[in-house]
């Protein structure tokens, strides 16, 4: 991902003085990966959509900018709820300068195409954790009658007679592929069946929300989803579910520091695979209607984990769990089966004293007695989170650079961690910049 990064972004860092057990409770924000498709869904609605539970994150702002760019009205009401009215939209285009900063922009392709009969969306390009193509998104749209050409870095999709229902079998589970094609199918003519579809809670949140606006969808939450196309769907009020990945990251912060953390506004059912592993490692897990508590054992036990599509162990928690296993008793193995390059945090953790060896998609993590603070660099969103966790547990000072990665997925992370007792500060770093350079770059 070649995100537009300012000099200030590059200079900003997070400083952590580790070694203190984190305790207390913190509230989970709305889920980034639920909010992004929910915002794109406004393109389908024949009326204003009012949102709640939308987190304040850079990626969300990018998606709002993208939708406004198409001519929709994007406003906030006096209760600071987001309103999107796409009845004024008339430009089904997603330009490179916006798409290059967030690959999830591809989520507007299905809605734009099924609404307007044509769309032009920049190819997302790869990112740090892998090539992340969208070939399955495009194949599904072609099965629904779209003519797709890719030239000059743009996808040009045309469906002059509108899209029709189809039977789509995904070669492998794709979350945004499932979401993109679900939205395309909502206004297509006839029935669409998706086999080997993603069953993530964020997919269910999208289906629930689309149903509340008039869509006909069944099977979400399983790997077979059936959509009956309708003429139109109305505006209405929809809400993003809590962010299960953020919640688990704070629970991991309590465990790795030998503390005891509760996350409120959370859904235990969405984290069953993670919580099962926490129990296997000796952690104490308690859950309620909308809260989860994890307390650390005196010494974490090693375990073996393979990332899998939901309800398996989430790939978005692999880096955070690896940080925990660095301090476990014994040797753990962590297999990353979803992305081809999601071990960028390993070398940084090794700089902090971790003992990790890579063998292809497998990380062998030998537990060590302690981690030591160091200067490390964030490379992608969840890798950054694992470095924060390691810094919280390490002895001494950890300085994490390129923290703009972490701001993409964690709302007010220092504030929430300080509430749990962490010694964490953000430094602009501009004090090291000579004024000329700072002024030049603004
Ligand atoms: C979503 O990405 C999430 N992002 C990711 O979260 C998450 O890691 C991922 O699902 C897996 O759970 C959002 O929801 C915005 P995929 P997505 O399509 O949909 C390959 C985070 O940290 N693939 O499920 O882009 C792909 O390369 C982010 O919050 C194709 O080959 O992931 C990957 O190896 C990171 N062709 C695998 O499938 C396609 O057309 C799963 O990708 C689509 C995907």
What is the fold's blueprint, element by element?
Blueprint: H1 7-11, E1 13-17, E2 23-27, H2 32-41, E3 49-52, H3 58-69, E4 73-76, E5 82-85, E6 93-94, H4 96-99, H5 109-116, E7 118-122, H6 135-143, E8 147-151, E9 154-158, E10 167-169, H7 175-186, E11 191-195, H8 201-212, E12 216-218, E13 224-228, E14 236-239, H9 244-256, E15 260-264, H10 272-280, E16 284-287, E17 291-295, E18 304-306, H11 318-325, E19 331-335, H12 344-351, E20 355-359, E21 362-366, E22 375-377, H13 381-393, E23 397-401, H14 413-419, E24 423-427, H15 435-441
Residues 33, 36, 104, 130-137, 172, 174-177, 315-316, 338-339, 381-382, 409 line the site of ligand EPZ.
- The CATH class of the largest domain is Alpha Beta
Largest sheet composition: 4 strands, mixed
Portion of residues in beta strands equals 15-25%
Number of helical runs? Answer: 15
Q: What is the structural class? A: alpha/beta
Instruction: Name the bound molecules.
Output: ligand EPZ
CATH topology of the largest domain: UDP-n-acetylglucosamine1-carboxyvinyl-transferase, Chain
Percentage of residues in helical conformation: 25-40%
Report how far the terminal alpha carbons are from each other. 23 Å
CATH-defined architecture of the largest domain: Alpha-beta prism
Indicate how many domains the architecture comprises.
2
Number of strands: 24
Polypeptide structure, described:
The protein is an alpha/beta fold. The chain folds into two domains: 7-29 and 242-433, Enolpyruvate transferase domain (UDP-n-acetylglucosamine1-carboxyvinyl-transferase, Chain), CATH 3.65.10.10; 32-239, Enolpyruvate transferase domain (UDP-n-acetylglucosamine1-carboxyvinyl-transferase, Chain, Alpha-beta prism), CATH 3.65.10.10. It contains 15 helices and 24 strands. The protein has helices spanning 7-11, 32-41, 58-69, 96-99, 109-116, 135-143, 175-186, 201-212, 244-256, 272-280, 318-325, 344-351, 381-393, 413-419, 435-441; strands spanning 13-17, 23-27, 49-52, 73-76, 82-85, 93-94, 118-122, 147-151, 154-158, 167-169, 191-195, 216-218, 224-228, 236-239, 260-264, 284-287, 291-295, 304-306, 331-335, 355-359, 362-366, 375-377, 397-401, 423-427. The strands form six sheets. Strands 22-23-1-24 form a four-stranded mixed β-sheet. It has a four-stranded mixed β-sheet with strand order 2-15-17-16. A hairpin with a 5-residue loop joins strand 12 (216-218) and strand 13. Helix 2 (32-41) runs parallel beside helix 3, helix 5 runs parallel beside helix 7 (175-186) and helix 9 (244-256) runs parallel beside helix 11 (318-325). The longest helix has 13 residues, at 244-256. The model has no long low-confidence stretch (mean pLDDT 94). Bound molecules: ligand EPZ.
């Amino acid at each position: 991902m070649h995100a537009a990064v300012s000099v200030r972004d590059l200079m900003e860092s997070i400083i952590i003085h580790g070694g203190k057990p984190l305790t207390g409770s913190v509230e989970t924000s709305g889920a980034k990966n639920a909010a992004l498709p929910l915002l794109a869904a406004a393109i389908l609605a024949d009326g204003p959509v009012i949102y709640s539970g939308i987190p304040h994150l850079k990626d969300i702002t990018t998606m709002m900018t993208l939708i406004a760019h198409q001519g929709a009205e994007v406003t906030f009401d006096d209760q600071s709820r987001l309103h999107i009215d796409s009845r004024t939209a008339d430009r089904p285009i997603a330009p490179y300068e916006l798409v290059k900063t967030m690959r999830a922009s591809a989520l507007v392709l299905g809605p734009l195409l099924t609404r307007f009969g044509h769309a032009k969306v920049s190819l997302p390009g790869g990112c740090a954790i892998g090539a992340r193509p969208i070939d399955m998104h495009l194949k599904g749209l072609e099965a629904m009658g779209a003519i797709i050409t890719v030239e000059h870095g743009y996808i040009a999709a045309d469906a002059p007679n509108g899209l029709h229902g189809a039977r789509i079998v995904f070669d492998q589970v794709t979350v945004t592929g499932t979401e993109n094609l679900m939205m395309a199918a909502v206004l297509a003519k006839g029935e669409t069946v998706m086999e080997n579809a993603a069953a993530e809670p964020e997919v269910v949140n999208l289906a629930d929300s689309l149903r509340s606006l008039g869509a006909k969808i069944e099977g979400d939450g399983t790997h077979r989803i059936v959509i009956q196309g309708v003429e139109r769907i109305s505006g209405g009020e929809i809400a993003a579910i809590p962010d299960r990945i953020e919640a688990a990251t704070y629970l991991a912060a309590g465990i790795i520091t030998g503390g005891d953390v509760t996350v409120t506004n959370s859904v235990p059912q969405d984290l069953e695979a993670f919580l099962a592993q926490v129990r296997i490692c000796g952690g104490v897990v308690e859950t309620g209607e909308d809260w989860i508590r994890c307390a650390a054992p005196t010494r974490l036990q090693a375990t073996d984990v393979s990332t899998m599509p939901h309800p398996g162990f989430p790939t978005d928690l692999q880096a955070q769990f690896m940080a925990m296993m660095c301090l476990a008793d014994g040797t753990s193995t962590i297999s990353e089966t979803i992305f081809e390059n999601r071990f960028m945090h390993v070398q940084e953790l090794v700089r902090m004293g971790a003992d990790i060896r890579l063998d292809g998609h497998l990380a062998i993590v030998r537990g060590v007695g302690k981690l030591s603070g160091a200067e490390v660099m964030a490379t992608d969103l969840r890798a950054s989170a694992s470095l924060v966790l390691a810094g919280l547990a390490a002895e001494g000072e950890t300085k994490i650079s390129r923290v703009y990665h972490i701001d993409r997925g964690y709302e007010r992370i220092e504030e929430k961690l300080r509430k749990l007792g962490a010694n964490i500060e953000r430094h602009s770093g501009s004090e090291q910049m000579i004024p000329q350079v700072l002024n030049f770059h603004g």
